[in-house]
Amino acid sequence: MKPKEITIYDLALKLNLSPATVSRGLKDHPAIKKTTKKKIFDLAKELGYRSNNFASNLRRQRTNTLGIIVPRLNSHFMSTAIAGIESVVNKEGYNLIISQSQESAIKEAANAATMFNNRVDGLLVSLAYDTKTIEHFEPFFKKHIPLLFFDRVIEHENCTKIFIDNRKAAYDATLHLIEQGCKRIAHITAMQKRNVYVDRMRGYQEALQDGGLEYDDDLVIINNLSQEAGAAAAETLLEMDELPDGIFVANDNCAIGCMQTLMEAGVNIPGDVAFVGFNNDPVSTVIQPNLTTINYPGYQMGELAAQNLINHLNGTATIEMTNSIIMRSDLIVRASSKRLPE
Question: Contacts from 326-329 at CB under 8 Å and sequence distance 24+?
Answer without folding.
Answer: 326/163, 326/164, 326/165, 327/162, 327/163, 327/164, 327/297, 327/300, 327/301, 328/164, 328/297, 329/164, 329/165, 329/168, 329/169, 329/294, 329/295, 329/296, 329/297
